[in-house]
Specification:
Length: 558
């Protein structure tokens, strides 16, 4: 793994295939930074740190922007992204003095912010206050992080620009031009997409070709307006405006093949003042190459929500919950095996579900008021709404439910698979990539209704859902491996094969000596592939990213 990947990287996780790595681009800007310099404004630089085995490690750092309290950094931070891990990030902003490396005592700390990769990916744009040491606010300073995905096979575009006969802004030499491309969002705000290098002393510069993701360039809308600005670089941060032009990705695509597209670079002030003003130079798009393939992150960033349902086995084979030998024993000092698996997997999933409400079901118990056996009851005993508030809500419902029910049997899981499948079928009819369902089944034994379960899984394989089964305890789970189609294709009793492999079975005892995060990594590693397979089969493209609402920002750090 790359150093930029968090998690227990040195810990072996049995049977755990690594999910295909995606690369996430993080773009950073700040507002209202503290001014630490007496003569000029602060010269800010951002450090990105990632937590690895409890230690914060520097991953990368931005350029230093001279004399600017509201910097928009051109540096794109690239981090490896794993859906099945909680990846903690820390951004630290420093006023750089240029002599020593950033982050030393000579540099003034302007504030820091912590979040996870999953949170930024799910929200696409996160704005949070900067904090000084000991939780103190850094004045009104804020930091905004915007995520875009670029991976080797993701949709991206390669652009090559040059300019001709730009205005000369320098007295004793020629201009030092650079080009910026901004995407104009629905709220008319501008998002910096790319800033080229500076070409010194040249009025007809040829800039290096560069790649940007399609999502970053135009939010998957070819007609979205783009503003391109040419500046004459100034080392004190006071760049001179040469000119600008507006275009769209649709118009840029005319440059494919042998064709070229060019625009007049216009200075609006000159246009008003000078009668014979034509332009301040011409910008030419020499070449454009485009490549589209959708990935898991495309769907997540397009607003696809992961809805998480947990189903808990309350059959008598678990043992009396009042007995310390029971798998359901509530030990005040440490979580039981059911809670360990639930929390480990649920903590990953909750970053991808905007309402943070999880359906929590039970099976194999006699439940009040009539104490009849149920194989799909809400553990909060609310038949109209089986959702709990966050993972903590599920834990609390589980603990309060145990004394009220009678553990019984048999171990039938087909009813719960079918219940989630009905909801997923309603979602499928929208013909949009808006919700995908993960069902986590925690059970202590081999299922009794194997034929019905195989039938239910085959039906579910045509729907936007995945099933994770964790075998709790030390039973012989050999027969359960048949459900995890890794050894061959799972078929219904009538011989109909699954459309796609949607079941991941893991015996928890394989992780006896590993941390809970290792279990989560293993069971969730297949999910991104399963999501992409489903939407690719259905030919549903990602929805376009929805505009952020003001309350979508993450809460302040603890």
């Amino acid at each position: 793994r790359a150093t930029a990947t968090m998690g227990d990287v040195t810990e072996p996780s049995p049977q755990a295939p690594l999910a295909a790595v995606s690369k996430v681009e993080l773009r950073v800007s700040c507002k209202h930074l503290l001014d630490r310099d007496t003569l000029n404004k602060s010269d800010p630089c951002v450090l990105l740190l990632m937590q690895s085995q409890g230690q914060w490690m520097e991953v990368d750092r931005s350029e230093v922007i001279k004399s600017n309290l509201n910097p928009v950094f051109a540096k794109i931070f690239t981090v490896d992204y794993y859906f099945e891990e909680v990846q903690k990030l820390r951004f630290e902003v420093y006023d750089s003095h240029g002599h020593a490396s950033v982050g030393t005592h000579d540099d003034d700390f302007l504030g820091g912010m912590e979040c996870t990769v999953g949170q930024i990916v799910a929200q696409k744009r996160v704005t949070k206050p900067l904090f000084l040491k000991y939780g103190k606010f850094a004045g009104k300073s804020t930091i905004t992080v915007i995520s875009e995905e670029i991976s080797g096979n993701n949709g991206y575009v390669e652009l090559a620009f040059r300019a001709k006969k730009l205005d000369d802004k320098d007295l004793f030499s020629k201009s030092d031009p650079f080009l910026e491309i901004y995407r104009i969002d629905d709220d008319r705000s501008e998002q910096l997409v790319y800033r080229t290098e500076v070409v010194k002393n040249n009025l007809s510069p040829i800039w290096e070709p560069f790649k940007v993701s399609l999502n970053s360039l135009c939010s998957c809308e070819e007609k979205r307006k783009l503003r391109c600005v040419v500046w004459d670089y100034d080392s004190r941060g006071k760049h001179d405006f040469i000119g600008e032009f507006f275009t769209t990705f649709e118009e840029m695509q005319k440059a494919m093949g042998e064709n070229k597209v060019q625009w007049d670079c216009m200075n609006p002030k000159y246009k008003i003042k000078k009668r014979n003003y034509k332009n301040s130079g011409v910008v030419v798009l020499l070449d454009l190459k485009i490549h589209r393939v959708y990935s898991f992150l495309d769907y997540i960033m397009g607003g696809c929500q992961i809805h998480f349902t947990v189903a808990i086995d309350f059959t008598a084979s678990n043992g009396d919950p009042r007995n310390s030998c029971s798998l359901h024993y509530i030990n005040p000092y440490q979580p039981n095996e059911y809670l360990k698996a639930l929390v480990a997997v649920g903590e990953i999933c909750q970053d991808y579900d905007s309402d943070k409400k999880f359906s929590a079901l039970g099976f194999g118990a006699r439940i009040p008021p009539k104490y009849e056996v149920s194989h799909d009851f809400a553990i909060n005993f609310n038949p109209d709404n089986d959702e709990c508030e966050g993972i903590q809500g599920v834990v609390e419902s589980y603990q309060s439910c145990l004394p009220k029910i009678q553990l019984y049997g048999p171990t039938n899981v087909a009813p719960i698979i079918s219940k989630v499948a009905r909801v997923a079928a309603d979602e499928e009819r929208t013909k949009e990539a808006s919700q995908y369902f993960i069902l986590l089944i925690l059970t202590d034994g081999v299922v009794t209704d194997m034929a019905d379960t195989r039938e239910a899984i085959v039906r579910a394989s045509y729907l936007p859902m995945s099933i994770i089964i964790v075998g709790v305890g030390n039973a012989d789970f050999t027969d359960m491996q048949i459900l995890d189609g890794d050894d061959g294709i799972l078929r219904s009793p009538k011989g109909e094969p699954v459309l796609r492999d949607i079941v991941q079975f893991v015996p928890q005892c394989s992780f006896k000596n590993a941390s809970p995060t290792a279990l989560a990594k293993c069971v969730l590693a297949e999910v991104p592939k399963q999501v992409v397979e489903y939407y690719s089969y259905k030919a549903f493209p990602p929805r376009c990213p929805q505009p952020e609402t003001p309350d979508s920002n993450l809460s302040s750090p603890q």
